[in-house]
Amino acid sequence: MTRPIPPPLVLSRIDVQRIEALLESPAARDIDTRGLEAELERAEVVEPADLPADVVSMNSTARVRDLDSGETREVTLVYPRDADGTPGRVSILAPIGSALLGLRVGETIDWPLPGGRMSHLELLAIHYQPEHAGDLHR
């Protein structure tokens, strides 16, 4: 059985630098970050001002649909320090956070969850992306 090819991934240089530093920090020590590391490895890295407006970056707020349940929700992709339990805040170190990073509007992704289950998500819209809003130094 062949694995599906993941969609192309475009990331901001600043996000990549910050995530790489995070992966080397104590916050990531006891977390399986292999999936996130693989995403960073395969990404095309661009300057923040050159990031397309339809791509999820760090601190972006997006609307996603779970293709299995049909449920839609709004999520904001954040660093672990900002994942404070507020509904909709998703840490980049969570499997779903890693799956959202670099996803483009209209794309879907399958991401493994604990227990061997898979999550099937579609990115419906991005309501806020720091790069597109000119917040390049957030």
Question: Which keywords apply here?
Answer:
alpha/beta, DNA binding, Chitinase A, domain 3, two-stranded parallel ribbon, transferase, 22% helix, 4 helices, 138 residues, five-stranded mixed sheet
What does this structure look like?
One of its GO terms (biological process) is regulation of DNA-templated transcription elongation. Residues 7-46 form the Regulator of nucleoside diphosphate kinase N-terminal domain. Residues 52-128 form the Transcription elongation factor GreA/GreB C-terminal domain. It is a single chain. The chain is an alpha/beta fold and 138 residues long. The protein has a single domain, classed as Roll (Chitinase A, domain 3), CATH 3.10.50. It has four helices and seven strands; from the N terminus they run E-H-H-E-E-E-E-H-E-E-H. The N and C termini lie far apart (42 Å). The model has no long low-confidence stretch (mean pLDDT 88).
